[in-house]
């Protein structure tokens, strides 16, 4: 604008000079330089006018943008106020849910403590039962005849197979019941979250029913754990008994072979040299070698690892049915092989 005013002043001065030059005829005509300057000044004035018009249009567009942004800011402020209200209501709901969750966690801690104490008692009882069973089985082994043992073990194998199939069916039923209870719990949680405000007075009763269901499911899981532990203990015990019987059958075969190779006179002569009786000599012949003891130790360690693996499977999270089934089938196959080996040994000895 200042340049425009300066140019207009210069133009007015030039016009005044040209007018005065026209009046004074005596003075010479204006030079070409002054005309050129006039033209240049007019061009500059036109350029400045164009720039002023452009700037005015840009100012109008900027004003429109500012108005739009102000409207946008007002809309955003309204939305922010609405969001703040929603956030406050959600905070209140979250605090209420946290307090309820703390109460549920405390109840769960007490139930877990009682469950641990019951598990300890069950372990102690199972250990006592296993010790008593081992003593009874050892007495039965000494009393029973080899021919009767063969038929009994075959019957026991078939019975165990049938019982395992029945128990597998029970296990599948228990798993389906557990899945149903979990599904029911998820449905209860979904309905409770949707109807928190409408069912605020009935939450206490719903929590009591859920706790009862949880206690029932925990009892069922505990029963399943005790069943699996008892089954694995019985399997391991029967496998150990078969191993001891196989060793005894092998020893009997070796002793009979030694007796067949040696005459009665040579046996008595050896006993007189060693200054022992013939029965003591037979016991000396029946002593296990280092390889047999190492083998028994390895078998005992394998059984121990198998029981620890079963315990780990029971302590892990669901699902573990397939791996548990594989482990039990592995032990059953081992028992089957031992039964076949024992029956073949008994055939040869008889």
Automatic annotation (TrEMBL):
Protein name as catalogued: CNTLN protein
GO cellular component entries: centriole; centrosome
InterPro entries the record matches: CNTLN (IPR038810)
Organismal lineage: Eukaryota, Metazoa, Chordata, Craniata, Vertebrata
Domain of life: Eukaryota
A GO biological-process term: centriole-centriole cohesion
Residue ranges, annotated region (Disordered): 1-39
Biased composition (Basic and acidic residues): 1-17
């Amino acid at each position: 604008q200042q340049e425009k005013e300066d140019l207009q002043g210069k133009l007015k001065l030039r016009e005044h000079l040209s007018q005065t030059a026209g009046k004074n005829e005596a003075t010479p005509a204006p030079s070409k330089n002054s005309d050129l300057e006039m033209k240049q000044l007019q061009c500059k004035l036109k350029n400045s006018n164009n720039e002023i018009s452009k700037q005015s249009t840009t100012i109008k567009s900027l004003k429109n943008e500012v108005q739009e942004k102000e409207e946008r800011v007002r809309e955003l402020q309204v939305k922010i106020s609405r969001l703040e209200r929603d956030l406050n209501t959600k905070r209140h709901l979250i605090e209420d849910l946290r307090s309820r969750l703390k109460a549920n966690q405390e109840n769960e801690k007490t139930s877990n403590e009682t469950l641990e104490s019951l598990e300890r008692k069950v372990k102690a009882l199972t250990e006592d039962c296993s010790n008593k069973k081992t003593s009874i089985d050892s007495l039965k082994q000494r009393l029973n005849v080899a021919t009767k043992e063969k038929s009994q073990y075959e019957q026991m194998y078939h019975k165990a197979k049938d019982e395992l199939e029945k128990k597998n069916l029970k296990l599948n039923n228990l798993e389906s019941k557990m899945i149903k209870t979990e599904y029911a719990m998820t449905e209860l949680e979904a309905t409770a979250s949707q109807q928190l405000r409408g069912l605020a007075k009935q939450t206490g009763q719903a929590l009591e029913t859920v706790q009862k269901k949880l206690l029932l499911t925990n009892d069922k899981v505990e029963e399943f754990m005790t069943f699996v532990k008892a089954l694995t203990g019985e399997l391991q015990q029967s496998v150990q008994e078969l191993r001891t019987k196989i060793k005894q059958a092998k020893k009997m075969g070796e002793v009979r072979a030694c007796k067949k190779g040696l005459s009665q006179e040579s046996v008595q002569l050896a006993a007189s040299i060693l200054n022992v009786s013939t029965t003591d000599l037979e016991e000396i012949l029946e002593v296990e070698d280092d390889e047999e003891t190492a083998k028994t130790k390895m078998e005992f360690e394998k059984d121990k690892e198998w029981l620890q693996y079963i315990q780990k499977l029971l302590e892990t999270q669901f699902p573990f049915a397939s791996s548990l089934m594989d482990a039990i089938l592995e032990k059953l196959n081992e028992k089957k092989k031992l039964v076949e080996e024992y029956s073949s040994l008994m055939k040869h000895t008889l």
